C-alpha cells in the first residue's frame, strides 16, 4: 500500500479527496490515507512524521505555501510523488514546480474522473521509482535528513551513536534559515559551535540543521548560539529555532520545537514589516484618499498594535507598548502635516501625542483616537485641496466615486475639462504618483478593509474593488502591501 497525504485549507476539498481515496483503496488501487493538513506547517510536520509516498498539495495554503513546503522537503524525500493543485491556471507556478519534481498539476475544482486518472498515473510512477538515492548510504545524511525527524528505536539510535561517534545520549537541534548553497558559512558556524559543543550539521536548500550532541542547558546554549550567529552572519533578521534537550530516540521532538520557533520568528518579523508598510501607506494617503479609506487604514494599524492588550492588570506592559506605538504614529502624521518635529519646529500643533500615554484602557483610547485622527485627516485634506489646482480636485473627486468601475485617465480628464496629458502632469507634480498607481492604491485600500470580513472570499473582494482577474489582484495587492491577500487576512 502507498500512503497519501492531502494538503488543502478547504475542508470540503479534504473530505472529498479522502472519500475518493477511500473508494480507490476499496478497488484495485493500492493507496491508504496517511493524513490531512490544512497549513504549510502542518504539511511539513506530517511529511516528516509519516513520509508519504504521494502528496496532493494545494499551492495557496496558509503560512508556508505549497511550493515552499516542497522546496523544504524535496532533497529529504526525492522519491515522494507530488500532485499540485490550485484554483487558477498559473504558468509561472508551474515553472517553479518543475525543478521540485512535481508529478502533476491540477486546476480546481478537480472532478472525480480527473482524481482517479491522476491516481492511476501516480501508481505507475510509484511502482517504477528507482531505488533510494545514494545520499542515504551516508549515515550522517540519512540521520540528519530523515531519521532524526521521526521517533527512533533504541537499536537505531545506538547504531547512529556508534556510526557518528556521538558522545552523549542526549542532544538538541538548532535550525537556521539562510541563503541556499552557503556551505562555507555553515561550516564556519559549526566550527564555532564545536569550540564548546560536539556538533554535526547538514545544509538542505536554504535551511541548516545543527545537532548538538550534549546534555546542555538550552538557555545557556541559546545565548552562546545567538552570539555566534550574530558574529558570523553580521546582523540583519535571523530566522532560527532551538529545540529542547532530548534523548536520541526523542530528538524528533527537538526538531519539531526548533521548526516551530523558527516559523514564529519569521512570522513576528513579517508582522513588523507589515506594520511599517501600513504606516507608510497611511502617511502617503493622508489628504489624498477619501476619509473612509483613511479611517479604515488607521483602524487596521491600531487594532494590530492593541491586539491582546486591553489595558487590564494582566497585560499592562503590552498596553503601554501599544500606546507608545500610537504616540510614534501620531508624531509622524503631525510632522508630515506641519513639519513641527523637523523643518518647522515653531509650528503650532493641534494636540500633543504624548496625551496617549495617560489613557488607562482600550475604551479611553478609542474615545481619544477617533476625533484626533479625524482632525488630522481633515486638516490634511484642506491643505491638499488649498494647494491643488481645481482640475485636479475635480478629477480626484470623480476618481474616488468611480474607481471600482474600470475608468481610464481620459474619463477623469473629461470630467475635469482638461486634456489627458495635462491631468497626467498634475498627478506627477502634485501627488508624486501616476493615475494608474493612484487608482490601484484606492482599490487595494478598500480591499484591506473588506478583508477584515472573513465571510467574503478573496475572489469576491477582487471583483468588488474592480479587478476581473483574481490573480492580477493578488499581484497588485502584494506590490502595495508586501503580502498576498490571504496572508494579510491571517496576519
Descriptive report:
The chain is of the alpha/beta class. The protein has three domains: 2-131, Rossmann fold, CATH 3.40.50.2300; 135-267, Ribosomal protein S10 (Alpha-Beta Plaits); 271-490, Homeodomain-like (Arc Repressor Mutant, subunit A). It contains 20 helices and ten strands. A five-stranded parallel β-sheet has the order 2-1-3-4-5, sandwiched between helices. The radius of gyration is 28 Å and the shape is globular.
Short account of what is shown:
The chain has 491 residues and is α/β, with parallel strands linked by helices. The chain has helices spanning 11-26, 40-50, 66-73, 91-97, 112-127, 139-145, 154-164, 183-193, 218-233, 251-285, 291-305, 316-338, 362-387, 390-402, 409-416, 420-431, 435-450, 458-464, 470-481, 485-490, and strands spanning 2-7, 31-37, 54-58, 81-86, 104-107, 170-177, 199-204, 207-212, 239-242, 246-247.
Amino acid at each position: 500500500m502507498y500512503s497519501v497525504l492531502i494538503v488543502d485549507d478547504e475542508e470540503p476539498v479534504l473530505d472529498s479527496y479522502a472519500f475518493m481515496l477511500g473508494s480507490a483503496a476499496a478497488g484495485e488501487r493500492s493507496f491508504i490515507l496517511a493524513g490531512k493538513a490544512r497549513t504549510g506547517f502542518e504539511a511539513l510536520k506530517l511529511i516528516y512524521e509519516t513520509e508519504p509516498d504521494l502528496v496532493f498539495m494545494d499551492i495557496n495554503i496558509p503560512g508556508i505555501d505549497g511550493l515552499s513546503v516542497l522546496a523544504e522537503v524535496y532533497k529529504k524525500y526525492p522519491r515522494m510523488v507530488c500532485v499540485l493543485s490550485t484554483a487558477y491556471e498559473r504558468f509561472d507556478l508551474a515553472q517553479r514546480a518543475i525543478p521540485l519534481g512535481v508529478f502533476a498539476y491540477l486546476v480546481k475544482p478537480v472532478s472525480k474522473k480527473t482524481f482517479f486518472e491522476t491516481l492511476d498515473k501516480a501508481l505507475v510512477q510509484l511502482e517504477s521509482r528507482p531505488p533510494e538515492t545514494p545520499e542515504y548510504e551516508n549515515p550522517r545524511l540519512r540521520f540528519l535528513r530523515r531519521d532524526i525527524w521521526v521517533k527512533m528505536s533504541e537499536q537505531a539510535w545506538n547504531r547512529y551513536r556508534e556510526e557518528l561517534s556521538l558522545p552523549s545520549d542526549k542532544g538538541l537541534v538548532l535550525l537556521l534559515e539562510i541563503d541556499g548553497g552557503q556551505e562555507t558559512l555553515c561550516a564556519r558556524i559549526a566550527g564555532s559551535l564545536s569550540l564548546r559543543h560536539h556538533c554535526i550539521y547538514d545544509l538542505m536548500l536554504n535551511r541548516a540543521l545543527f545537532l548538538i550532541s550534549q546534555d546542555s542547558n538550552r538557555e545557556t546554549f541559546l545565548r552562546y548560539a545567538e552570539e555566534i550567529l550574530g558574529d558570523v552572519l553580521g546582523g540583519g533578521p535571523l530566522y532560527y529555532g532551538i529545540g529542547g534537550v532530548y534523548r536520541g530516540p526523542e530528538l524528533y521532538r527537538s526538531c519539531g520545537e526548533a521548526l516551530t520557533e523558527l516559523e514564529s520568528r519569521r512570522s513576528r518579523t513579517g508582522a513588523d514589516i507589515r506594520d511599517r508598510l501600513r504606516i507608510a501607506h497611511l502617511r502617503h494617503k493622508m489628504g489624498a484618499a477619501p476619509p473612509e479609506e483613511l479611517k479604515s487604514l488607521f483602524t487596521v494599524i491600531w487594532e494590530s498594535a492593541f491586539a491582546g492588550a486591553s489595558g487590564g492588570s494582566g497585560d499592562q506592559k503590552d498596553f503601554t507598548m501599544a500606546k507608545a506605538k500610537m504616540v510614534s504614529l501620531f508624531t509622524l502624521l503631525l510632522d508630515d502635516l506641519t513639519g513641527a518635529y523637523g523643518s518647522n519646529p515653531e509650528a503650532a500643533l493641534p494636540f500633543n501625542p504624548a496625551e496617549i500615554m495617560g489613557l488607562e484602557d482600550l475604551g479611553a483610547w478609542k474615545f481619544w483616537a477617533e476625533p484626533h485622527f479625524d482632525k488630522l485627516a481633515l486638516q490634511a485634506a484642506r491643505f491638499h485641496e488649498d494647494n491643488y489646482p481645481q482640475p485636479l480636485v475635480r478629477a480626484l473627486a470623480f476618481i474616488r466615486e468611480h474607481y471600482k468601475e474600470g475608468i481610464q485617465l481620459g474619463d477623469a480628464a473629461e470630467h475635469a475639462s482638461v486634456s489627458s496629458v495635462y491631468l497626467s502632469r498634475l498627478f506627477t507634480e502634485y501627488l508624486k504618483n501616476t493615475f494608474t498607481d493612484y487608482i490601484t492604491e484606492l482599490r487595494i485600500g478598500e480591499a484591506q478593509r473588506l478583508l477584515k470580513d472573513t465571510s467574503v472570499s478573496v475572489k469576491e473582494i477582487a471583483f468588488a474593488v474592480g479587478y476581473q482577474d483574481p490573480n492580477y489582484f493578488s499581484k497588485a495587492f502584494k506590490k502595495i502591501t508586501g503580502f498576498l491577500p490571504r496572508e494579510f487576512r491571517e496576519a
